[in-house]
Amino acid sequence: MDAARLFERYRELQSYVGWTDADREWIVASGPLLEPYLHGLIADFYDEIERHPGARKVITGGPAQIERLKDTLVRWIRDLLTGRYDEEYVARRWRVGWRHVEIGLAQVYTNVALSRLRTGMIRALHESWQRDPLGLKETVGALNKLLDLDLAIIEDAYQSEYITRLQRSERLATLGQVAGGVAHELRNPLNVIKTSVYYLRNARTPSPEKQAEHLRRIEQNVDRADGVITSLSNFARVPVPELRPIALDSFVRDTLEMNPTDEAIEVAIDCPQELPLALGDRDQLQIALGNLLRNAREAMPEGGRLTIAGRARGGHVELSTADTGVGILSEVLTLVT
């Protein structure tokens, strides 16, 4: 959670609902009127939870936990009425949503619980109001705006955390699916290494050329196995994408510096400067392009030409790679297609 960015978003939402300094003043003024009703509102809040198993199931600590939760909710309401809606306030609201995901509370219960609390607070205002009716109307309107803003931040946190966990689960499931393929990719270089080691151990009078050939085979296949492990490790720890504008030409050149090709490979970059910025996660895209560059390098052991091209198409930016490598054997290509 980026507190500064979250607060900026909250300020935008305030503008969206028409929040004003006058609204803040009405809320602050309502604090003393609502204070005598707080414990009754909280008691009603948790009495209702007891009648709904879907909400009740997340309270596992018995009466002692409920008492702690009641104290927390009292503080939450008082915090709501202070008029101090700064960065720390918004961060505290965001953590409420995060905590709901952590304990497994369905978001629908947060929505209806806040609705019940809202109804109780408005009823309390009507009962305690002794000023002009217009002021009551303004205070109720301000309270509705404020509670809607709270709910928006809580829902945002809930969705962000939920999506993060869902993507993590999907990534682990995918890891399970590709495990067989990874085993195959590792077994091949390991078999080559094993064969070369056997030869070097048992050959009676191997020539220097043969020794050098088998040592080179061992080194190449160690690098190949390391590449498989690196790719899998990078995939396993890929975070939720953080989208930012990307200039394609500089992105490609930076990735090439991180994944240099052999001198025998001619590299051609065709990414016009006038291309629009692409929206994506730079780190994750560098992993993907880096894998393509390594594949191209391995496909051209004797050299060749690698072309990287960027194009604007249909409101999107496309990046493609092509090489003059050996390609995939036709019988293998038939199996995978």
Description:
With about 325 residues, this protein is mainly alpha-helical. About 70% of the residues lie in helices and about 10% in strands. The chain has twelve helices and five strands. The chain has helices spanning about 5-15, 20-35, 40-50, 55, 60-80, 85-105, 105-130, 135-200, 210-235, 250-260, 280-300, 330-335; strands at about 245, 265-270, 280, 305-315, 315-325. A three-stranded mixed β-sheet has the order 2-4-5, covered by helices on one side. A two-stranded antiparallel sheet has the order 1-3. Strand 4 and strand 5 form a beta hairpin. Helix 1 packs across helix 6 (about 85-105), helix 3 packs antiparallel against helix 7 and helix 10 packs across helix 11. The chain is elongated, with a radius of gyration of 31 Å. The model has no long low-confidence stretch (mean pLDDT about 85).
Mean pLDDT: 85
What is the number of helices? 12
In which range does the helix fraction lie?
Answer: over 70%
Task: Order the strands across the largest sheet as they lie in space.
Answer: 2-4-5
* Number of DSSP strand runs: 5
Series of H and E elements: HHHHHHHHHEHEEHEEH
Structural class: mainly alpha
- Kindly estimate the percentage of residues that lie in beta strands according to DSSP: 5-15%
Main beta sheet strand tally, sense and closure: 3 strands, mixed
Q: For the terminal residues, how far apart are their CA atoms?
A: 42 Å
